[in-house]
Give the backbone structure.
Amino acid sequence: MLEFLGKGGLFMVPILLCSITALAIFVERLFSLRRPRVIPADLVRRTEALVAGKDLPAAMELLRQSRAAIARVLAAGLRASGQRRDVMKDHLEEAGRQEAAGLERFVDTLGTIAGVSTLLGLLGTISGMIEIFSVISTQSAVNPASLAGGISEALVTTLAGLSVAIPTIVMHRYLLNKANALTLEMERLSTRFMDLLNPEGLTD
């Protein structure tokens, strides 16, 4: 492995760092985007039962004790209870936007890493080609062995860059889809919660 990395030259170091960073982000986001962590079914069920029973203080206390994203969204709606439906909706949507941004945290970084890894591989390829032509220009009779270093750098960095970029793109799309699905679920629950707080659809 070390010999393979050495053939790629200095460009292998940032490519390796990109791969480590991408993997760390993916693992962290996998843990953070688990549905029971973002939208605990038991929390939603208990909160809705308390609201249906008109025990709003107990519902608010329950939500305050939770660190789930949906708890902060529902708490925003609960604080707006008694106000017009459009005001309550605005509070829920604002809280939902903030939580959606939190769910997508670092996800865009994976897309950046994929692009940077590809470019680093290309840059290593160009560097290797420059080395090859430099050798050719200084030798009247080209010795294939003298070109091996440049050829290795060109091919290895391209391979390494793509090997990091391709799975990183897959990770980026997977996490983005997962975050979007959780956001849509929170929107659905927010609408249902608003109907519980304002069952008659009052607007004034």
Remarks:
- Residues 144-197 form the longest helix (54 residues).
- Residues 2-197 form one domain.
- The two ends are 69 Å apart (CA to CA).
